[in-house]
Amino acid sequence: MQKSKIIEKVREAGIVGAGGGGFPTHVKIQAEVKTVIANGAECEPLLSTDKYLMENNAGDIIKGLRYIKQCAGAQEVYIALKRKYEKAVKEFKLIIGETSDIKLALLDNYYPAGDEFDVVYNVTGKIIPEGGLPLDVGCVVINVNTLLNVKRALDDSSPVTDRWITVSGEVEKPYIASVPIGISASELIKEACVKIKDYRLLAGGPMMGVPVEENYRVTKTCSGIIVLPENHSAFIKQDMTLRAHKKRGKSICDQCFDCTIVCPRNLLGHSLEPHRIMRNLFIADENISVYTPSFLCSQCGLCNMFACPMDLSPRNLLKETSDALSRRGVKNPHKKRNLKPHPEREYRKVNASRLSARIGVDKYEKEELPVKSVLPGAVRINLSQHAGTAALPVVKEGDSVKRGQLIGEIPRGKLGARVHSSISGKVKKVTSGYIEINKGENK
Ligand code: SF4
Ligand code: SF4
């Protein structure tokens, strides 16, 4: 298939990075690169949808990968996944064989093995420059769920209507499901039977997930709904005000350096030393170069959820710092290239099982999760589930729509992604932010 045809079909299907970034895939695949990497290194504790997809859809993932290889004119193609996913490794080996153009890159069980910077280094030995992209070292990295969507768009002209997610945590029946986009979190946790009275929800994993309410709606980038006790540190740290973070930091940061020791970006040679920013946050200093390394933070959360013995939150403070600099019109000045990893990187990587135990979610881990089907009576589909500009509604209240029908179009000349109806039914409400659809008789 011609490159332009592949890009057009991916654009039509509304595919965005399912790994969390949400970058429109039809834009990402336009570049010519040497290396394409399928990212199956899902590293957040409790999430296991990518593992399930690789075990059960290896053939389709490989078909999607070959389309991307062709589109990018790539010479090298890898599937990066954890060594411990033995069943998925076996499935891929069976399909690609020993002499295939696709190679497996087996990774250790550490966090954040799925971060693009770590994936690219582990697979190619190249380090993405400060403030850079995989493209800067001739790579495109694509999540395995995104590759499944690519395969379906090209072979079946199927748009993105559903999303694979994990529902887990303080629930009796954790599960994996492919659910219509726009389904509510309350419908998903009802199926899982929450075990405790005082709970809250995270959209995503316990390290990088965002606290949400039960009326939260699943998007193309939502990898899980996690139920945790309301006093879990994931909520306490995110709820705290900047003032409180600063006050605590000022009182008790002892400059022990532990946050910098585990920082994955520091371990790849980037000029990010969170302990230094913590030390200087409280000094009236006009020398902003002290603070600009905060632009290099990936928000992985290791410093505040795992490392800090004083229970401080460098991640939150770095986010606030980089946001404040951006508001002042300061741009990331850090562009160092040709970086070398820290000599102790291999020994400082944080084992994923140790991390799960440290943040108190190891008791929810399960080797295999059952697959369920959850069908909503109505959906509320966000028009901005991706990087770029929100889609423009192309339906109106009262319209009948079919599952897969286009309901949001990319504004002319803008970066964005199309949005499709995830169920058949009647349009109940249209706003500039979302479209509500009630389930109907249309199939
Ligand atoms: S780990 Fe905590 S106490 Fe130690 S330097 Fe970092 S923020 Fe300060
Ligand atoms: S969140 Fe903390 S550990 Fe992660 S990249 Fe940022 S500073 Fe480093």
CATH topology of the largest domain: Rossmann fold
Quaternary structure annotation? single chain
What does the radius of gyration come to?
A: 22 Å
Counted by DSSP, the helix tally is 17
Let me know the CATH homologous superfamily of the largest domain.
NADH-ubiquinone oxidoreductase 51kDa subunit
CATH architecture of the largest domain: 3-Layer(aba) Sandwich
Count every beta strand, where a strand is a DSSP E run of 2 or more residues.
Answer: 19
Helix content: 25-40%
Quickly count the domains: 4
Strand content: 15-25%
Poorly predicted spans: none
Quick one: CATH class of the largest domain?
Alpha Beta
Order of strands in the sheet with the most strands? 9-8-10-6-7-12
